[in-house]
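Case study B.
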Amino acid sequence: MLEADSLECERGGRKLFGPLSLDLAAGGLLRIAGANGSGKTSLLRILCGLLEPAAGQVRWNGTPIRELREDYSRELVYLGHAPAVKDELTPEENLAITCRLAGVPFSKEALKEALHAYSVPGLPARKLSQGQRRRAALARLVLSQRVPVWLLDEPFAALDVAAARFTEALVQEHVTRGGAVAYTTHQPSALDARSRVIELAA
Amino acid sequence: MLDTARTLVQRDLLLALRRKSDVATALLFFVIVASLFPLGIGAEPNQLRSIAPGVIWVAALLSSMLSLARLFAADHADGTLEQMLLGAAPLGIVVAAKAAAHWLVAGLPLVLAAPVIALQYDLEAPLYGVLALSLLIGTPILSIIGAIGAALTLGLRGGGVLLSLLVLPLYVPVLIMGAGAVEMAGAGLDPGGQLLLLAAMMVVAVAFAPLATAAALRISLE
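Model:
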């Protein structure tokens, strides 16, 4: 589904990694490993099209993603470092808006269930803790089961054990369903055994 | 696509509603700047009448400028902007919707407040309509052109000042046509020409500025 061809990444005039080729097929689980500053986030951002690689290209079913733009965006969920949760809105409003912008259909009940599954309280997001915000963002995964590609940047950061287990289970299910997931993490997780690993050298 | 635009406009209006001070700041700035001139220049009606269109228009430009710096900054800080870039709709639509919401929050109140401000300048009654109409056509241009500057200066330190340096020169034609329309009407001539030119500028801006803003956003977010 997703393939990257001899990617190279430069940040601030310094070469971060490359040339790097990878492919992520249906049912593929890929862990991007490496020390801080080795370019894990940059690689994920290149894969989702937010960052242009210095060389090489990313293709979705054979077509370069820069030609596909939003047609490709619709096929992926990217969860970055910032949780993308608006302080002034409730988690429910946040999730509804995120899903609508991403073109993911949802029902009100499903929305409530997703937030409930991650036990996010119904307070304005401003009053949530870091971990709760993270969960509010991750709740999107529950609704995005039809979206084939998940690109998750540090999905377990700031999560407690229960929420981390739940996220792992969601990812496992998604992969079993035929989805593809690429993620970065520093924490050991139950996914490690099943994932292919790409090690980025700092 | 339309769903995205509607969602974004609704979202930004809801955010403005929950963060009322932002809206109030821009409007109060406009009211205060426009009120300073009669106080500073003195109550000579003829003089006031002659400077009114220009002063009110300049105050509107500055006020719109003031709120532009925040157009993308908050969304950039909490990561929602990234998600908009990865949204289901083309980025141009997203940008146009953001600019539309900006106009509803920061431009439309100016249009409504302008006739009240004009009272201080002893403008003749028929001119109120022309002033409001010129602002109604002109302020959307400010929002949509300003979005290019806001996108280009996103994430820069001291971006606010740079934004004014980038965008204010682009506002000059709008200022000339907008204030000119009111002056024409004041001189007893037909302001139609200026207003139509202003409308033409709006059409061109609405058609092309979102593409430029989208390109600028992609660069800023790299």
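The first helix of chain B runs from residue 2 to 18. The remaining cases will be described in the next quarterly update.
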